[in-house]
Amino acid sequence: MRFRLTPRETSFYDMFAASADNIVTGSKLLMELLGADTSARAEIAERMRAAEHAGDDATHAIFHQLNSSFITPFDREDIYALAGSLDDIMDFMEEAVDLVVLYQIEELPKGVEQQIEVLARAAELTAEAMPNLRTMTNLTEYWIEVNRLENQADQIHRKLLAQLFNGKYDAIEVLKLKQIVDVLEEAADAFEHVANTVETIAVKES
């Protein structure tokens, strides 16, 4: 790790950790949605919106701190990228839940639960990794595993698309369900963006 003579603003570490913890909350709400009756989904969506707003607040706090800090713990563009990618994850998860409610989906296709399980695991790994930015230790396994999970998510997504286009669903239902599974795939991609940014930061700081 590079030796620095100047003090650094350390509150970023706590804010990144809080943002990642909020993503875990979002992933749990996605899991809850899977087992919920259609009548309970609107309330879950409301809690997800609250979590997404909390994520926005966390992101704005990071940007505000960045704009008011002369010395930062690592490069400013990496702080922007990391905060933005964390925010994207919450946005995509909230969008998926909202679409399920708005489209009044009776039953999600088989395989969506696998998508959400991958997201939940990636959320746990991300929350565990963020505190390690302080020391830049124990991060290699994190980004390797998140990249593996994203590859797994790609495979699940392709199988879901094949299922949607096999003639079982009518055209309108296909459009609705495809939008939902696509947004969940975008959430998996955003987890990979976070992991790639963490890897970039670690390489620069080594």
Describe this structure in words.
Helices cover 76% and strands 0% of the residues. The chain has helices spanning 11-34, 41-68, 76-102, 112-129, 140-164, 171-205. Helix 1 (11-34) runs parallel beside helix 3 (76-102) and helix 4 (112-129) packs parallel to helix 6.
Strand content: under 5%
Global mean pLDDT: 93
The strand count comes to 0
Q: What sequence of helices (H) and strands (E) makes up the elements?
A: HHHHHH
Q: Describe the global form.
A: globular
What is the straight-line distance between the termini?
4 Å
- Which regions contain 5 or more consecutive residues with pLDDT less than 50? 1-7
> What proportion of the residues is helical, as a percent range?
over 70%
The biggest sheet amounts to: none
Helix count, DSSP H or I runs of 4 or more residues: 6
Helix/strand structural class:
mainly alpha
User: Rounded to an integer, what's the Rg over CA atoms?
Assistant: 18 Å
Pfam families: PhoU_div
InterPro entries: PhoU-like_sf (IPR038078), Put_Phosphate_transp_reg (IPR018445), UPF0111_domain (IPR052912)
Family: Belongs to the UPF0111 family.
Protein name: DUF47 family protein
Please provide a brief summary of the model.
The chain has helices at residues 11-34, 41-68, 76-102, 112-129, 140-164, 171-205. It has 206 residues and is mainly α. Pfam families: PhoU_div.
